[in-house]
Amino acid sequence: MKQFLALLLVAVTIGSSAVVGEPPKLQPMPKPLTAAVATQIIPPEQKEIEKMNDEYGEAFKRGDHKALASFYTEDADQTDGEGNVVVTGRAGIEKQLKEYFSENKGAECRLNTESVRPLTPDVMLEKGGAVVTRTDGNTTKSNYLAIHVKRDGKWLISHLTESGPQAAASPYSHLQELEWMVGSWKDNSSDMDVETTCQWAANKTFLTRSFSANSKERGKLEGTEVLGWDPIRGHIRAWIFDSEGGFGEAIWTRDGNRWLIQSVTTMADGRKASAHHSITRISDDRYTWESTNRVLDGEVRPNIEKIEINRVKSQN
After folding, report:
1. Which helix (H) or strand (E) holds 49?
2. Hey, what CATH class is 44-163 in?
3. CATH topology of 3-36+170-311 equal to that of 44-163?
4. Which fold has domain 3-36+170-311?
5. What global pTM score does this model have?
6. What is the per-residue pLDDT across 245-268, written as a single tens digit (0 to 9) for each?
């Protein structure tokens, strides 16, 4: 298979990186001007609270209201998101839990710690989320702030504020930054004739980009790219499929008016292609595209200099 297919599929999609001699790996690109959080060390205070939360979840699963009440101080209180007191004292909390389990046997609770901040050596503020799952499969989610105090070497909850979670951001709210790409586009390249059409899927949950490329050497190639928001990894992800059986995956990361994109592509014959690409928005009707760090089947390929891409104006 000639170089054209590898060039085109990576060109009309958007790229990744790979080491020569090794199979390319799809890894999220670091966000510009943001320190890598993966290398951060979890503070010992947070480890203690997370261990305590695991024990709380085990007692909750057993329906042990007495054990759960022991996680609180004698004078602990609980408030709702508006500051209204819901229950006061360990005895009151225990009674409330007993009543809950009498109607919700077998319910489970998972606590997820988002952050722990020491206020003093013996006081910590925890921010987290709770997910309660009943035996019928229904779940209840909430956010909480907990003040922990150390008593006789053990951390206890002295105050708990629990509120409903904020509504999750819709996929559209993340993809909206790419709405300017909706429409038809044509590459200003002498090597091949590439046309792309971008449109919203139903409910604006995905963006779809269909492309076609014509070359005297290769003929016509068509394909589809689907862009969506990955809520687990927190970035825009793309999936690409071409008419010859090739497929790929890409990650999009924004840097001002430029999009940095990684892709890993599997050619129809099984070879791997990867590259770094960037799209720079010049205006609503024009952007540039370029490609670096291109690797095809373990061999480094030449970079592709900037190509200008213009919007196709409607004839109406």
Report:
1. helix 44-62
2. alpha beta
3. no
4. Lipocalin (2.40.128)
5. 0.53
6. 999 999 999 988 999 999 999 999
